[in-house]
Amino acid sequence: MTQEAELVFSRPESLSDVVTHYCPGCIHGIVHRLIAEVMDELGIRERTVGIAPVGCSVLAYNYFECDFAEAAHGRAPAMATGMKRVNPDLIVFTYQGDGDLASIGTNEVIHAAARGENITTIFINNAVYGMTGGQMAPTTLPGMVTTSSPYGRDVKKQGYPVRVSELISQLDGSAYIVRRTAYKPAEIRKLRRAIKTGFQVQMAGLGFSLVEVVSNCPTNWGMTPKESLKFVEERMIDYYPLGDFRVRDEVKDLK
């Protein structure tokens, strides 16, 4: 007599069953799945709206079974602010890369946080402009070679990388600002908990929340996926340390 196999792992209902456009080894797909799992767990899919950026994740709306909008480059927090204020019952999140959020969109995210807008931002930091050819981004590491810094980023000429979580955490409207990564299973589990908390902060009306994800970009870094994950572990996290940068007392009560 044979026993029926027990299904222990399946695609989240909030994640679309489509072929990805992301490069092999890219962390975007992992983060998408975690967001979908959290939406399913919290039962918020029917009232969630995502804001897609301009960048590698410009087509993020293809991968989620919830409503989505597309913002102009860097303007996702402004669009999210309008949606949330018009309909406070919505759960609104932006999904942004470093070129979108930390460059042209810096003003938008800083003032959304300063106002304490009750939205959630998922910020992917892979230290490069991914979609447009691998140019230097605001988060590119000192000495890091890109297509627009072929001799490495020179901080005397191009300045130092922007540490977004540290910057945003100083604003009084921020409720939950953390940095995580996804280069190994233990870190993926921590990231999932952080994303869940980010949504819970919004559901409780506590203010602005941001989860930064230190990510890789095998294609533009000129590495294999395995090499790029090693670079994240050995180089990226040294400059962008993981941790909690602002967690209000009310947020701690959510856990």
Q: How would you describe this protein?
A:
The chain is of the alpha/beta class. The chain has one domain: Rossmann fold. 37% of the residues lie in helices and 18% in strands. It has ten helices and nine strands. A seven-stranded mixed β-sheet has the order 2-1-3-4-8-7-9, with helices on both faces. Strand 5 and strand 6 form a beta hairpin. Helix 1 packs across helix 7 and helix 3 packs across helix 4. It starts with 27 loop residues before the first helix and ends with a helix. The model has no long low-confidence stretch (mean pLDDT 95).
Please name the defining characteristics of this protein:
single chain, 255 residues, alpha/beta, Rossmann fold, 7-stranded mixed β-sheet, two-stranded antiparallel ribbon, 10 helices, 37% helix
Give me the secondary-structure category: alpha/beta
CATH architecture annotation: 3-Layer(aba) Sandwich
Number of strands: 9
| CATH-derived topology | Rossmann fold
> Order of strands side by side in the largest beta sheet?
2-1-3-4-8-7-9
- Uncertain residue segments: none
Rg (C-alpha, Å): 18 Å
* Broad CATH class: Alpha Beta
Please summarize the sheet with the most strands.
7 strands, mixed
The portion of residues forming beta strands comes to 15-25%
**What's the total helix number?**
10
Distance between the first and last residues' Cα: 44 Å
Helix/strand order, N-terminal first: HEEHEHHEEEHHEHEHHEH
Oligomeric state: single chain
Mean pLDDT over the full residue set: 95
Helix content: 25-40%
CATH superfamily: Thiamin diphosphate (ThDP)-binding fold, Pyr/PP domains
Structurally, the number of domains stands at 1
Rough outline: globular
